[in-house]
Structure of TetR family transcriptional regulator:
Amino acid sequence: MSEAPRPGRAADVTNPKPPMRESLVAAAFQLFVERGYEETTVDDIVALAGVGRRSFFRYFPSKEDVVFPDHEGCLAEMTAFLRDSGPTHEPVGRVCDAARLVLRMYAENPAFSVQRYRLTRKVPGLRTYELSVVWRYERALAEYLRGRFAGLRDGTLRADVIAAAVVAAHNNGLRSWLRSGGRSDARAEVDHALTHVQQAFGPDHAPGADPTREPAREPGSDASRAEDRNTGRDADRHADRDDDVVVVVSRRGAPLWRVVQEIETALGRDSD
Amino acid sequence: MSEAPRPGRAADVTNPKPPMRESLVAAAFQLFVERGYEETTVDDIVALAGVGRRSFFRYFPSKEDVVFPDHEGCLAEMTAFLRDSGPTHEPVGRVCDAARLVLRMYAENPAFSVQRYRLTRKVPGLRTYELSVVWRYERALAEYLRGRFAGLRDGTLRADVIAAAVVAAHNNGLRSWLRSGGRSDARAEVDHALTHVQQAFGPDHAPGADPTREPAREPGSDASRAEDRNTGRDADRHADRDDDVVVVVSRRGAPLWRVVQEIETALGRDSD
DNA sequence: CCGAACAGGGAACTGAGTGCCATGGGGCAT
DNA sequence: ATGCCCCATGGCACTCAGTTCCCTGTTCGG
């Protein structure tokens, strides 16, 4: 009863649920799979949905947007997830968890996701549009990492490269799942792929270290399951790290603040 | 004369030089910088170029294509470069060299590249189009790596991740150069960025061991290192790559040889 | 000299996306 | 209850990208 199903209330991103959107998406996908994306005009969609043409463009800025109706909200969710991250979170693991949010969105509607995947495979215009969507995710990850790596040597470079690698790994696992028709284990595939990246770029970053070595840690970490952003799970990394040995190799005359910074990022902790 | 200046001869990518293309590109860019991309219609362009509207779409499949007139040829060049690679080439280094082909294309016309960069920054439609172009480069690299990694554990995953990382690093350096207005040392910036990736993914991790490449950094590229905002001026930072700080985190209980190996790789030496 | 081939031009059409205004219903104040 | 206002929707007309069809001139080959 505390929940008022008022549709006009829509100020929040997660809230607005006028059936208009839903019926437009449904009508659009029905026609897209029936006769193809490019062979379907917006007029066809609104005719089937029984609404005016002008209303379509009130709910979707373009015809392509109707194919990705949930990404805007997911991007907002990811941005919030990263914004609410504390300085104690290990950066690379954090962006991996952020990527898992996207996977979760796909996994919520397997049938829909697979249908959409087949569409985007075929239609170049949709593929391009998907690229722009993925790019925004990647930029969100990179911006977060840039903040975490600020002041570090090659900080923005590292941020950009890691963000790209995480997105590529995530997409590799995701597409493998989509190709299987949604029958394989999406979580496992993506976790495996992300672990791969974490081994190459993680805090115990050993350049050239072969990812074929043992996984240091169980992959299925936090956020995939996490409805909660605020559980104090910050400390379990700390416990996990306690039995590590830290070797610091420092150049003679290197400023001390730099040494401290490197150690901090390596451990994923913060000095304050 | 073996050279026939016939314009209709155009079967080769490097050959076709009908002035039509050139004048269209010139007219388009003049208007784009004058009054903006979206404020310029195709009719404006063809009017300035003094040709018929239909001819525009004979030379460019879309309005966006006129902004990237050279990428099609560059992609073909890259594809050929990778196709002609032998099994003796180190894969990661090879895709880095392939990426350098793109840089070279940009560097051939600095003024043009910078102008275009400023355009694509502003116009979302062009940014999206550029993403699709970059995506094709990335796919070319990934396909090559997939071939080289075929049969390996997680071969396609590694291929995709490395391709994404190489592209991200290349773009990081490239954009840094573009942001400088084409005044910094593009080669040095991109080399530095790519070296970064090679250190993370190179098989034997031998950064300086590749005899085909010059030393990655020369002292003249100080401007390119402007990102170092804290400017550790006390330390001459061009001292080869084990300057600053390297941190190695190892698990307690790990065999000592592994710790030593990690330190060695962190320092950029070979373990054997 | 004739015709095939082809580069270019032009008119008309489709379809996406936008601006403007009318309508209609539901809440709110008087 | 009445009148007012907000806002969601619908309808119309317009711009512009991209395409289809067809016309025109030139050039080359017979």
Q: What stands out?
A: The beta strands of chain A are 244-250.
